[in-house]
Amino acid sequence: MSTSDAAAAQSATIPAAEATIRPPVAKKVPTNRTHHGDTFVDNYEWLREKENPEVLTHLNAEQAYTDALTANQETLRDDIFNEIKNRTQETDLSVPSRKDGWWYYGRMVEGQSYGIQCRVAAESTGGLADWTPPVIEPGVDVPGEQVLLDCNAEAEGKPFFSLGGASVTRDGNLYAYAADFAGDELFTIRIKDLRTGELLPDTIENVFYGLTFSPDGSALYYMLADDSWRPHQVKSHILGTPVESDKVLYQEDDVAMWTGFELSADRRHLVIGIGCSEFSETRMLDFAAPEKGLQLLIPRAAEILYDAEPFLQDGIEKVLLTHDRDAVNSMISVVDVAEFSKPVAEQHWDTVVPHDDSVRINGATVTATHMVVSLRKDTIERIQVTALEGLGTPGQGAAVEPVFDEELYTASMGGSEYESPLIRLIYTSDFTPPRVYDYVLPLAGADGELLLRKETPVLGGYNPSDYVAERVWATADDGTQVPLSVLHRADLPRDGGNAGVVYGYGSYEMSMDPGFSVARLSLLDRGVVFVVAHVRGGGEMGRHWYENGKKLNKKNTFTDFVAATDWLAASGWVDPARIAAMGGSAGGLLMGAVANLAPEKYAAIVAQVPFVDALTTILDPELPLSALEWEEWGNPITDPEVYKYMKEYTPYENVRPVAYPKIAAVTSFNDTRVLYVEPAKWVQELRAVSTGTEPIVLKIEMDGGHGGASGRYEGWKTRAWDYAFLADALEATQLR
Predict the structure, then answer these.
(1) What is the DSSP secondary-structure string of 150-177?
(2) Which of 298, 506, 528, 722 could be disulfide-bonded to 523 (CB atoms 3.0-4.6 Å)?
(3) What SS3 state is found at 178?
C-alpha cells in the first residue's frame, strides 16, 4: 500500500463528523533486519532518531491528531479527574517511621503536586512507647518539625521531577537525595547538612537508583548504569573529595546481569546483589572490616537464584538464604558465613522454611528477635514471623501470621527498624484503602497484635460495601485454570448489558495483587465490570506459573488473556460487544499480541508504554535493557528457535489486514524502559494495514518517563485520559 493509499484508507475509518481530521502518515524508509536467514522489512525504524527534527515534527503531529480526535472526551476526562480529586484527601501525611533518634514522614498539601519530606525528634521513655508513632494531624503544624526536602520547591520551573531515593546518616546530620528532572530515570545526588540547611558542594550526576551512607557517614554508596541503562557499577564517594576520584567498589561486566545493593537489616553490611531471573550471586562488605573487601557467598556458576540477609545469632555470623536450590518455589535456609569458603556441594545449610509446591517464598529479613518472611499462598501475598531463637534447629518456634478478615487482600512489609519490637505492615484490598499496621512481634507461645495506625481516607461518601470483588477461574485452551479478580458495583444487574474491561500484565513473575484504586471507582460507577486477569508469566500461582509464561511458553500469556475475555463475554455480566482491554509495559506487549490474536473480541484497547517492538529491541544489545531481557524472552540473537517463536507473536511484526478495534498507544518521549519509537512504529503499521473503521491514536507525553508525567495531578490526568478513552469506546460515560 502506498503512502497516499494509506492516508486515504485511514481517513475512511474516521466518523463522518470527524472526516477532516487526518492522521499523520510517517514516510516509509525500508530497513532490512536479517537474522537466522530471515529478513524483516521495517518501514518505520527511522523514527528511532530522537534528535531528528522530522521525528519531533511527526510526534507532535501525532499528539495534535490525538487531541483533535479525542476532543469529545474532554468533559468526561474532566469529570473523572475531578472524581479522583474529590475522593482524595489532598492535605495528608504518612505514618511516621522511626529511624535512630527521629520520626520520619511525608506530607502532601492541597494544591501541591509533590510531597514534603519531614522529621521530628523521637523521645525515649522505654518499652513499646518508644515505637509508637506520634499522632500528627493533616494541616496541623508540628512543634519541632524539620523539613528535609520540599519536592515542590525542587520541581519548580522543571518540566519533570521524581525523587529516586534518599538516605540519612546515622547521626542524623546529613541527608542525601537523588532527583530526576527529565524522566529518563537518571538522577542527580545532592547532600544537605540538616544542621545548617546548606547543600554540600558534593554533586553526583547521572546516577541510577540506590544510595546509602556508610555507618560512620563518611562515605556515600551509589549506582551507575552503562550506556544500555543497565546498572553495573557500585561506587563509593568520600564526602568532601572530588567525584572524579570516587572508587568503583564493584563492576558487573556481564550484559545480561543486573546489579543492585542495600544495607543489611542490622546495617552491619553492604549487600550487593547481581543476577537475572534465573540465577544470582551476592557479595557483602563488612563495615567492621572494610579492608577485607567484598565476600562472595554463592557464585553464579552454581546457578542458584537466591537472596541473602546476614545477621548475628548467638554471636555467630549467619546468613539467611531465600533460594531455589532443589526448590522451584524457593525455601529458606540459615548458613554459617564460614561455610561459604567451601564448594557449594560441601556446605551445610540448615532448613528454616522447607519447600512447598503450594507456597511461593518471596523473601525474608530479620529483626533483632525475629525472622520475617514474605510469601504467597492461594494467590495472596502475606507475612509470617518466626522467633530467631532456635532458628534452623529442631527447637525452632512455629511461624505466626497476622490474621485479616478479607479473602482477597495484600499484606506486605512497610519497613521496620532492626531493634524495634514491632514491624510495619501495609494492607490493602481492591476496596479497602491502604492501611498501615504495626504488628507487635509475638513472644514465645503467643500471637502477635495488630495495631492500626492509619487507613487512607477516601472522601465523597465512599462505602466499600457498595462494591464487590470476586475470585473466579477461566479455562485456557490447554485446560489450565486461570484466576481472575472480578470487580463491580454491588448493585450492578447481571443482565448481560454492561461494559467490561480486562486488565493484564503477565511477565517477570510480577503479580497483579489486590490493591485499592481511587481512579478505578470512576469506571465501576459507570457500570463497568473490571477484570484483572492473573495470566501465566506473572507470579500469582508460584514459580511454575511464571515459567509457563516465559521464553518458549510466552504464548500462554496471550491465550490466557483471551480466555479471561471469553469468560467475561459468557459470564452474563456484560455485552460481549462492549469489552475493552488494558495493559502497560510488558502488559502493553500483551495488548499488542491479543489485538493481533483476537481483534474481534475488543471494542477498544489501551496500551500504556507498550513493549510492542520487542524483537527489534532484544536483537540489539546496545539498546537500553535489551541484554537483560534474554532471561525473560530468550535470546533471539543466538537461538534460531527463540527468534522464530518470538517473531510469531511480537505485535509489530504480526500486524495483519483485519479490522482492529479502537486503539490508544500511550507513551513518553523520555521513557528509558520502553522507548517511544516502539508504539510510534506500531501505530503507523496498524493504520497502514487495518481493514477496520476505528481510529488508532498515539498519545505521547513529551516531558515524561516510563510512568508518564510527574506530579500527582498530572498522574490523575493521565489516568483520567486512559479511562475516558475506554468509557467512551464502551458507551459507559454516565454515572449510574
Answers:
(1) EHHHHHTT-S--EEEEEEE-TTS-EEEE
(2) 528
(3) strand
Question: Residue 127: its pLDDT value, please?
Answer: 80
In sequence order, which residues have a C-beta less than 8 Å from that of residue 350 and are 6 or more positions away?
333, 334, 335, 392, 393
72-95 burial code (b ≥16 CB/10 A, e <16): ebeebbebbbebbbebbebebbbb
Cα dist. 247→166, 209, 262, 699 in Å?
A: 21, 18, 18, 43
Beta bridge partners of 606: 582, 664
φ and ψ at residue 601, rounded to 5 degrees: -85, -5
| CA proximity to 675, closest of 725, 616, 633 | 616
Strand partners, 482: 474
692 closest CA partner among 70, 12, 24: 12
- Mean pLDDT of each 10-residue bin along the chain, 736 residues long: 36 42 95 97 96 95 96 97 96 93 94 94 86 88 93 91 94 96 90 96 96 96 92 96 97 94 96 95 96 96 97 94 97 97 97 96 96 95 94 92 93 90 96 96 81 96 97 98 98 98 97 97 98 98 97 98 98 98 96 98 97 94 80 95 98 98 94 85 98 96 63 90 98 93
Cα angle, residue 682 at apex, residues 5 and 540 outer, rounded to 5°: 150
User: Does the CA dihedral 10-16-18-20 come out positive or negative?
Assistant: positive
C-alpha cell of 128?
A: 513499646
- Residue holding cell 475522593? 87
Integer CA distances (angstroms), 222 to 100, 362, 485, 610, in order: 22, 25, 40, 30
Rg (CA), the chain: 26
Give dist(CA 358, CA 367) in Å, integer: 27
Give the amino acid at 454.
Answer: K
Neighbours of 468 (CB within 10 A): 16
**342 CB-contact burial (10 Å; exposed 0-12 / middle 13-18 / buried 19+):** exposed
Q: Which three three-digit cell numbers place residue 357? A: 509446591
Is there a contact between 727 and 501 (Cβ–Cβ < 8 Å)?
no
Q: Is the separation of the CB atoms in 606 and 530 below 8 Å?
A: no
Closest residue by Cα to residue 42 from 655, 589, 708: 655
| 4-24: burial string, b at 16+ Cβ within 10 Å, e else | eebbeebeebbeeeeeebbbb
> According to the model, what pLDDT value does residue 539 have?
96
CB 273 within 8 A of CB 259: yes
The residue with cell 546468613 is: 319
Burial group, residue 377, by CB count within 10 angstroms (0-12, 13-18, 19+): middle
* CA 478 centroid distance within chain: 29
DSSP state of 327: -
Q: Which amino acid is at 547?
A: E
Residue 395: left if φ>0, alpha if ψ -120 to 50, beta else—which one? Answer: alpha
Cβ pair 513, 410 in contact under 8 A: yes
Are 535 and 597 spatial neighbours (Cβ–Cβ below 8 Å)? Answer: no
Q: What is the DSSP letter of 693?
A: S
Question: Reduced to 3 DSSP states, what percent helix, strand and coil does the chain have, rounded to the nearest 5?
Answer: 25, 35, 40
Angle value at C-alpha 242, between 236 and 248, nearest 5 degrees: 30
Query: By CB neighbour count within 10 A (0-12 exposed, 13-18 middle, 19+ buried), where does 510 fall?
Result: middle
Query: What 3-state class would DSSP assign to 299?
Result: coil
Q: Which residues are catalytic?
A: 585, 671, 706
pTM, to two decimals: 0.91
* Contact (Cβ atoms closer than 8 angstroms) between residue 622 and residue 531: no
β-sheet bridge partners, residue 117: 106, 149
Selection from 385, 101, 418, 424 nearest residue 264 by Cα: 418
718: three-class secondary structure by DSSP: helix
